Amino acid sequence: MTTQARKQKGSQRAEHKFFNPQGAEVKTRDEAFASQQMDVGAQAVSTDCKLTLHNGQISFALEVTYNPNTYPHVVTGGQIKSGICGAPWDITGGFIGEGLRIDAKRAGQGSCASTITIVGEYQNPPAFRGTYGFDGATSSFKHTTRYEC
After folding, report:
1. Could you tell me the pTM of the whole model?
2. What are phi and psi of 43, to 5 degrees?
């Protein structure tokens, strides 16, 4: 290989283009990653999904917020919107993975229990089969909970 060919090959390799997360071209690699670090907020570590718990004639509508960067996914909040006495219920924790656990406390009015715990195992098509109970119990009622995300 001639000296001229080596220079041309070397100059081609040194030519890089860098882009920030918004797609704009920037001059350096550091600039491309610097804006990404500044823009990361709480929303970057949470996402929402909908679950529907079925128990015979009863269906609970759940809107769950979880951290997609963990596995099993750590539940960070949400609500049981309808289908249960005293709705809405505030989801206080749990996880979604090969298994399911949702803990919630009653935020609505009524003389219902003050907490609910839903547990289950993953099955295909995407759903969880398990049990739930009130005020500390977890096995009072059977359910199938569909994953709708």
Report:
1. 0.69
2. -65, -25
